[in-house]
Amino acid sequence: MFVAWIRVALVPSLLALGSASLHAQEWREPYPEEAQPERYYSEPAYPEPAYRDPAYREPGYAPDEAPRYVEPAAPVSAPAPAASAPIRRATAPLSADFIAQANEAPMAGIPAKSDKPDPQVLKLQVLLDRVHVSPGVIDGRQGGNLNKAISALQSMHNMPPNGRLGPEIWDLLQVAADRPVLMDYTISDKDVAGPFVPVMPKDYAEMAALPKLAYRDPVELLGEKFHMDENFLRNLNPDADFTVAGTIITVVDVGPNAKAKVAHLVADASTRQLLGYNENWDVVVAYPATIGSADLPSPSGIHAVKAVAENPEYWYRPKVNFQQGNNDKPLKLASGPNNPVGTVWIGLDKPTYGIHGSPEPSKIDKTNSHGCLRLTNWDAQELVKLVKPGVDVEFVDQTPTASVAPAPAPAPVPVAVEAGGEQAMPPPLQ
What we know:
Blueprint: E1 5-7, H1 98-104, H2 119-130, H3 144-156, H4 167-172, E2 182-186, H5 189-192, H6 204-208, H7 218-225, H8 230-236, E3 248-252, E4 264-268, E5 273-277, E6 283-288, E7 290-291, E8 301-310, E9 314-316, E10 331-333, E11 344-348, E12 354-356, E13 373-374, H9 377-384, E14 392-395, E15 416-417, E16 423-424
Parallel strand pairs: 1-14, 12-13
Antiparallel strand pairs: 2-3, 4-5, 5-6, 7-13, 8-11, 8-14, 9-10, 11-12, 15-16
Organism: Kaistia defluvii
Protein name: Lipoprotein-anchoring transpeptidase ErfK/SrfK
Pfam families: PG_binding_1, YkuD
């Protein structure tokens, strides 16, 4: 039986990683999370474990009524176009040549600070995603998640993880620059078939009345499919009808998911990042993460992955957990991308702790969680294929006595030296 080690370590040379709040469930007799006021949504109470059993099937669930649920009778397809009517082609409003600028952006220099999407920043985000250091939601804007991805890339190549963009970063990304970062995509029948939930309720009783906590619309589906911010996707395609199959839109090309198995995980509550290592302690994946809060800090000690579930259900039990609004009875919330734990649950043997997806990818690393480690749905979907039940997990407190993961000595990195002996480094992205 494969048993791998996952360590969460405070290693300055490996991104100064520290404490992670990963809340799992007790698989046979679930325990609640701490009763805390609801923030954006509540952390998972009881996702249904799939254990990766090939015979596992999601339990059916058919409520008497689901007033907010919209399920088309048949997939919505584009009508056959007339000979003189071409299929719709969306254009980008960001600038007349934004697509060309992004695809042809030079692999050098530091993008200027801007409150608008920048073609060079977009290229940087996509190339980082292709080498499996996730920048989070791709939107062409500078931010903390982009800096963290740069740091992870530096750690991947045994460089000091300072998160600064310089020529060496562009050089490392050349391996992923074999094709344009933006591409055409034809919306398929499956993309628009639904079911969709145009207005996703926040109240758990209303959510429990739905047979599926599905996407709100095709834009949300396509945004997650291509790791894109929904508004950025719309702005890139202002004339597109996302509900019509056959419409050609512009999307980013992030490439396939990572394949290297993860033998160690390192999470840091201060930098809000999760890194995955192989057996040799080489970084193979990295993700921005929402990790706990001051009120609900990370656990410590050694634990293990108990089970993994894709498309998990969510169990709400107010008598053993928190109470949301006026809901004083147990509820079962269906699976789906807008489930409180998203599309993935990686549960640990520490009751109520786990790693999971999120229905709000744009808020990753922007809010606090109830203690769980929250990823975008697409990052969680990648990670769940790289880990397995039985993997040991160690979490360490952010203290001077915390244990640390063994790390190879970083390779020397040439840097310019100015008069006076001070190193001249490019400024970090903000």
